[in-house]
Amino acid sequence: MSQKPQETKEKTIEDTLKFLDDIREETGQVFELTTEENMLVREFLTALLKIIRPLAQALPVSTSVLPEEWGKVSQASLDLTGQLLLLYPDETMKLINLTEQRHRELLLRITYDIMPTLKRLITSHRQKIEARVTFMSSITKELQKTAKAFSPYGSK
Fold it and tell me: What is the C-alpha separation between 70 and 86, in angstroms, rounded?
């Protein structure tokens, strides 16, 4: 049997109210997650830039991770302000603010892309420091031995 018009109307109203409740709950969760994501993006870029600053002026980014609609990009790099710098074949430049909500997926692709480069830079930096420490350690030990000969009390 078919439902009466009144029952159908009540069912439709109940369904609509249920959808509205679900929408309100989802919207609240979207707001909370977006707020957390905004904070994490700021903290991520702050930490990343602190690491990059002593190592390089910018980190190269593969143009293959960029959206196709941006056209042919010759070079891309993450600069020390946390922006993506694009260089086109005609030598025009464009800055992309990676903190903007619309660039979050791009920020993830860039992060995957730059991690091997960041690791290489840090490893190279460590190796340079190790070489200096090894050199200074050897020289210092020899100078200390020589300095003992000039000590007024002689060597003990």
Answer: 10
